[in-house]
Design a protein that fits this description.
alpha/beta, OB fold (Dihydrolipoamide Acetyltransferase, E2P), Rossmann fold, binds guanosine-5'-triphosphate, binds magnesium ion
């Protein structure tokens, strides 16, 4: 670990440490790599006024330096860190680095109160309960739009397939759902955290990537997380719990070494708001419509039937029309939600207070 002087800016300190010559004007590639390696950490948890940052293979509990005032940090953020000088000290987060991707939602569709669920993830895996497919589809459609807007890949994981195997709902409904999304390039798996069915396919989906789970409360995100990450035992909800409080209150990233994957468990989200999206941009985030000529696209947006050359599943077209009408303010959003309990992402601002002034505890949107 480089020696850090307390009274200097970290970058300058690192620069001193790795400067290859007294002139120090042009850093060698190796020196630049050392700066990057020594100065950037990754936020793995945000909870109750503190962030946990993985830095040089060590997880530090960190507080925010004054330079971070007003800057929000979420799991997945890359941050410059000043490690503690003594074991009893906290590390300090001194800068948030630019985000490559964001999974953003609004708390309410009619608001623009953007909340970042995860930063710099490659993929969001939407978890749906096999016992509640209909309620999950509206959520999935919303997250796919947000993922596209934020630069992430979307994937779907139908959990609790042991219930489907028992006959309710039927396995064909699960397969039909997965086929519909596979047709537009959205990878999907059917799994059971309880029986282990499908977990190998899920591991393949996660391998080599940073992925975040997203889903309603109670769909089994944490149960899956516990199955996938060796040695981890996060609290899962009581059997039979419906509504009420969500179990997971803080997002947490863990490494799954054998498949070189990072996986983020997130609190349940009741409604994944798309309030920040402009209606005219919506078609950009529907793969089937994104590449169409402007006139064709405008005709569909105006309510016309897609031409024969355009392949779009009727469910997807209906979703597109409903989202568009809601984004334009012509129709209410609430048809899409099933009213399960809400959770949120765990964003914190640099002064240690909540990102959007919600309840104490470092969790956005918790009621
Ligand atoms: N039958 C069945 N039940 C499951 C399965 N996976 C999870 N559950 C149950 O579903 C309930 C909720 O599981 P959690 O893992 O806490 O759900 P969660 O999505 O993390 O919920 P939040 O943290 O509130 O967002 C628990 O009672 C689990 O035992 C599964 O594959 N099959
Ligand atoms: Mg959970």
């Amino acid at each position: 670990m480089p020696r850090i002087h307390d009274d200097h800016d970290l970058l300058e300190d690192d620069y001193d440490e790795v400067r290859p010559s007294r002139r120090g004007r042009n850093l060698s590639v190796a020196a630049k790599e050392r700066i990057a390696e020594h100065s950037a950490g990754r936020v793995v948890q945000v909870d109750r006024g503190h962030v946990s940052v993985l830095y040089e293979g060590v997880e530090y509990l960190a507080r925010f330096a004054g330079s971070m005032r007003g800057v929000k940090v979420v799991v997945g953020d890359r941050v410059r860190v000043k490690p503690p000088r003594h074991e009893t000290d906290l590390a300090r987060v001194i800068q948030r680095l630019p985000r490559e991707t964001v999974l953003a939602r609004t708390g309410d569709d009619d608001l623009e109160d953007e909340r970042i669920v995860v930063a710099n993830a490659d993929q969001v895996v939407v978890v749906i309960g096999a016992d509640y497919l209909d309620g999950g589809v509206g959520f999935l459609e919303r997250v796919l739009v947000a993922a596209s807007a934020g630069g992430l890949r979307g994937a779907v994981c139908v959990n609790k397939c042991d219930l489907a195997a028992a006959g309710s709902p039927d396995t064909a409904a699960v397969e039909g759902l997965l086929a519909r999304y596979a047709a537009i390039g959205v990878a999907g798996v059917a799994v059971s955290a309880h029986t282990g069915e499908g977990l190998e396919a899920l591991r393949e989906l996660l391998a080599g990537r940073w992925s975040a789970f997203a889903g309603h409360s109670g769909v089994g995100k944490t149960s899956l997380f516990n199955q996938l990450v060796p040695g981890v035992d996060r609290e899962v909800g009581d059997i039979g719990r419906r509504g009420g409080r969500h179990t997971t209150v803080a997002a947490r990233a863990e490494h799954v070494a054998d498949i070189d994957a990072w996986l983020v468990d997130t609190p349940g989200i009741r409604s994944f708001g798309l309030g920040g999206l402009a209606p005219e941009d919506l078609a950009d985030h529907f793969t089937e419509l994104a590449g169409l000529d402007r006139e064709v696209r405008q005709a569909i947006e105006a309510g016309g039937e897609p031409p024969a050359s355009v392949t779009i599943d009727p469910v997807r077209l209906r979703t597109f029309r409903r989202f568009l009408a809601a984004l334009r303010g012509d129709e209410p959003w609430d048809d899409f939600d099933d009213g399960r309990s809400d959770g949120g992402s765990g964003g914190l601002v640099g002064d240690g207070r909540e990102g959007d002034g919600s309840a104490p505890g470092g969790v956005e949107g918790e009621q």
